[in-house]
User: Fold this.
Amino acid sequence: MPASKNPSATWCEARRNALPALATQTAATQESIGVSFHNVEKRFGSLAALRGVSLEIRPGEFVALLGPNGAGKTTLLRIAALLMHPTRGAVLFTNRPAVGREHARAQAFSVRPKHAIALVGHSTLLYDELTAAENLTLFARLYALERISEAVAAALEDCGLATRAGSLVRMFSRGMRQRLAIARALLHQPSLILLDEPAAGLDRQGLTWFSARLAQLKSDGCTILMSTHARNESVDLASRAIALAGGRIEHDSGPNGDPRALLAALRAEQ
Amino acid sequence: MTTARAAAIVLGKELRLEFRTRELLTATVIFALVVVVLFSFAFDPTAAESRRYGPGLLWIAFLFAGSLMLNPSFAREQNNETLDALRMAPISSFAILLGKILANLIFMSLAELVLVPVFAVLYNLSLAGIVWRLILVLVLGTLGLTVTGTVFSAVSAHARMRELLLPLLLLPLLTPLLIAAVESTAGLFAEQPALDRTWLAFLAGFDIVFLTASWLLCDHLLEE
Assistant:
């Protein structure tokens, strides 16, 4: 395998070889789900992180969540990831557009589709004292995946870390950790992918890989909600852009709108 | 996935991490040994005094060791926010808690395995004839200690001064358990060893109550 000779130079090639297998599994095993926020408020003591956010993200949409630090992007993503309860309001998951379908909304209340959600956060969510393979194997077991060793090998190949499978994560560079964090999040082939500044720490090769992976996930019909800066190139893949400020939605290009005007305006501001 | 299966996976992860770093075990065993040795030299107890004060000293050593060991149980999940990854997995919150309780029970038992023979030698106490009954008391007492300690480790993990908070929360709550454990152990160390069934039942009851409470409240315990 070429990657074993020179991992830093050839891991993109290894990724290209591994990608079709992963992509096929993603499309086949998970139905795309959407998420809607209904007047969601989140308070941390006297600080209001979100102030009445209402938003519907349809299955298969790729939404870029933009805004300055403290706008509420991370809080919104953590609520969608079921890691936080909103102080007020509701979050619903549905496998079909909820607009005008009260029956679907009522059903969605009881759904907590943990198996279908992935989060790449500010932290890597990885154990530093476990190896790359051990980290992925642990989460593959927790998600009750089949053919775990094959899934782990494919994920490591995909993110270009196959030759470092036995290395402790604490020995990795920031970029390698981030690639492994993304691989860990995508291991169970989620259909709702929440990304909080996912490109942080990635080098140019890493960004290329990540953009290609995002494009693949988008074409597979995954729902993607990505918080990022408008500068980031991968944001151009988004089909919708939402700008948050002070815990409120300031701009929304809409599900059928063109996000490019909003992205261009934000880029000009920056 | 069943809770037992998920708990076993979490337990496996805890054991692998601990046996790779040996952070908790080394510190705990050394600390508990120092306590026992120090008291032994300070009091230089006779056999009668050892029977009288020994059980209390033994459980104080276990308690301090437990406080030291249980605090990082959830705190070390903060490093890379790995608890979020566990909470996002499609497993019950109780499986996470149970895996950690079992891991802490194993670590505490290993520490006791080293500590009890040293204690017996230093305090001139014979364990012959009471080993199995002593193990029963140690298991029930240690289970209570680890269940409450792990639960409060989860509660205090997000706190700013968690090293201070855990003993403050834990010690008052553990007082009844420690009294029962000391009384049960004292009965076994008496000249005519006897296991007091009332104290033993109290230990078992404490364990059942706190295990049930942790099962009922686990979702809230692991929330931010």
Summary: The longest strand of chain A covers residues 34-44. The first helix of chain A runs from residue 7 to 29.
